[in-house]
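Subject: complex prediction, re-run

Hi both,

The earlier run crashed halfway through, so I resubmitted it with identical inputs.
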Amino acid sequence: MATITFKTKDLERDLGGIDRLDERISDYGMEIEEQGKEEMTFDISPNRPDMLDYNGFVRALGYFSGKEPELGKYDVGKSPALTVTVTPAVRRIRPYIAAMVVKGANLKGDRLKYLINFTEKFSITYGRRRKKIAMGLHNLEAVKGDLVYDAAANEKFVPLGTDREMTFGEILEQHNKGIEYADTVAAKGKRGRAIYPYLRDSEKILSMIPIINSKATEVRDSMSSLLIDVTGTDERTVEKTLDILACSFIDSGCKVLPCRILYNGTAMSTPLLKERTIGIRAADAAKTIGVGISAGDIPGYLGRMGYEAKTEGKKVSARVPPYRLDVINEQDVIEDIAIGYGYRKIIPRPIVAADFSGAPHPNAEVREALDALMLGLGYTEALNTVLTNEDINFSRMGRKQERNATVSVARSKTEAISMLRTSIMPQLLQNLGISTSERMPQRLFEIGSVFRVDNGKVVEEIMIGFLGEHSKANLAEARTVLNYITGRLGMKATIERGSDPSMIEGRCGAVLIGGKRRGIFGELHPEALSKFGIEEPVVGGELIINADAMR
Amino acid sequence: MDEMLLRVLKAIEGNPGSDADGLAKSSSIDRGTIISSINALESDKYVHFRTEAEYSVEPSKEGLSYKDGFPEEELVEKVKSHGGEIAISSIKDQIGLIWAKKNGWIEISEGKARLKKEAHTGEYAQRKVFNALISGSGKAHLTNTIRSNPDVVKLLESRKLLTINRAERIEDISLTDAGKEAISKWSGGSGEIAELTRDIITKRAWTDKKFRKYDINAVVDGIYPARAHPVMEFIDIVRNTWMRMGFTEVEGPIVESAFWNFDALFVPQDHPTRDMQDTFFLSNPESIEIEDRELMGRISAMHRKGWQMQWKEKLATQAVLKTQSTAATIRHVRKIASALKEGETARFFSVGKTFRNESIDYKHLAEFYQVDGMVIGDGVNLANLIHVISEFYARLGFVMGKDIHIRPSYFPFVEPGMEVYYTPEDGSKIELLGSGVIRKEISKAMGTNKRILAWGGGIDRLLLKGLKIESITELYRNSMEWLRNRNEIEL
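This time it finished cleanly. Structure:
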């Protein structure tokens, strides 16, 4: 989720007061992250990036409080203010651009800040850190002639935030935005040279995309004429993003003029602001939500969500506002009907069904039975994470790691995490190691998943591990426990001499179920004990117990 | 006479001249019991011993902050640097002012603090003693410092700069003649029965003897029965609640393909959570084959149509650690969906480990449990979903609309989507579940035209509250002390 901050006084003015705003916001599916006297911060859910924009936010809440939507106003005509020619070079690396001209903008107060915050937040989240979408704002007065969207290896211009001319290469290495977004532009041109997208007018470079704009077209809050471009890798998202911006400016009373985009012979006009109507059967909405609403009620609920909807018999046709880029089909509209209706007004209704019996999973049944047995034997239950590392799982146990057989994590933010455990005892030993000052005897067990890779495939098994620590602990104790649990669970176990680097040679047994080695038990070797900081004798064992391994 | 006292007497007999620790070791009676028994025995003159005072020092936070200079010392320096006189209003630290005056270093008049001639020179006794006490340079040194500076120590304690714990160490314990006599008397010589034995019972030796009366209030050892882990205990509460509501438990693998974890749930392939940042990808194995080719074809089509983007099998075969347990329930949908008859419903849930590639701290773990549930049915709807969830939490003692609330929410695989959250009395807000009606593109791909209700969420936050602890890492540290003494779960 992305958060966005607006001035409290702006909201008070434009929302007609902020009484019970938290409730309205929550009913709309968002959240107030922080409410201050000066500023308020909102959590905007990822399907509504249009509300990261101040005008979009105020607009949505206005409709929600009963203001009538008029979608007809989102029309910018077809006479272009500028032409943008897209070159074949840039088509290969960042193919899409949409642009428009805004006149009569008011960027005073916090308006420019809101606009920049919107472009930043939007590009980071929806724009996937500017890879998929980036936006540029330019002072229209400083733009000369028509535009070219091109790509080149090493042009130069004066970027924002400096006073000196820099080449593309220098920007990537020295400019803070260049360093931050260098990874988003790497692209190979012909002959393997890296080339970078940029926008220029008839005289100069306006921006290196998606990195930084030129100082020459810097926008200040005193300006009222803007050129706005959106570029990216996905055509639909580029177009819809410009639609969001166009609607925002139109809603704030500006004049928006389209630009003509020339792609190798074909021309199109942006913003598209395409009309889209989705038909919904009232019965589908009523059945999905589970409330008795009819076709005649729905336009009212949809109006609260910014749609213009008309009832046509048992159906409703809903005009989708052009700034909504999350509406895929009628299901998304039905959700909006539910929000417009109010989730809290929906009366909970029990499911009517004849078939009605719950049951545990076989693995869980075994686990529950074993839990009870072990608690009865005086073993306290531990629960460790399945994520662990080689030091604990192998080294301290004296066990050798088979790399191919270990499930390994590619990149972890935490150093102590690098693999999934292959055994339960190591972590139980670690648990005893931090409990040395506690009263003896100490007995611990855990039932949980262990992992290995067999022929390139992951095998997940359930294992019980148990340890007893006290001055008189010996092999017989571990054997007794194994006899007891295998007996009680009906597993036919045979015991033979075993060996494990973590155990004393000659004091280790292997447990065979159906002829297969499924477990071990024995006296832990002093070497392993001292690696875990344990000073008293410890005996224990482990056994695979998944339902399919018990016979 | 108490049986425990007799055991202690016997222990002393076997180990004369020992101290309490020595007796505890040789007799396996705990130290506290030995000390209280010896005190009782001493008052009856059965034993004698020497006591040795033993001190330990605990500095307070405030004390430690004075280590390099007490506030009164700092104040004097300040006054000095202002030429020996300073306005009281400019002194922020009242503590320094009070003590400098108490020590007679300054005088106060007409709103000014003036340095007195005899003011503080050389090392300040309070600081010297404080630092000596916390230096940790051995028991003898500590005892010596406390004994030779009783007044200063008293001051430091009264200022709450440190606490001195005074304990008496019992040494050189031995029996008096009366003690030796008592052993033979209590051991049966007196004709009273002490410890009941097999012989006494089978030979009816008790019929002509008296039972010695024991001290009902004698000190006894603590008891540490085995306990279940609270997370498992809570999981079983949750499981049993769902099962009683007619839900069947299902399980799914922990290591999953991105296909089941993301693609099957309509999470677009360029979604930020599919980034290394949030999800654990594996280096061994790197990929997991998608065996259900028919389903893969449908899921691929669903993505291409819905997101208007290319769909790459290579990204779907990436091996990940499950990021939500819906991967397990949606697998189950695929297994049963096509066999469901007209009018039939299915309801099931799953409790499973889920993973986030997080930097671990007291609030965040990389691994935690989630509970997911689903209902498949012909006419099931959002109102049913609200009912199922209300019913579940009602059984845990929460009331919908009062403790538990709903609001719209977005997840790529449900529409409508709904969040369920809990507002405890402390005014905080705990997210419990994400839920909704599964998108029909997904249901259809899985092989059913019925509607599917789904929900899922973590259990740790609610459990922390139930256990009255703050740190989530505590849950999985498994220190014996905590496992034995933790609170009961009270939701």
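Residues 82-270 of chain A form a domain with the Phenylalanyl-tRNA Synthetase; Chain B, domain 3 fold (CATH 3.50.40.10).

- K.
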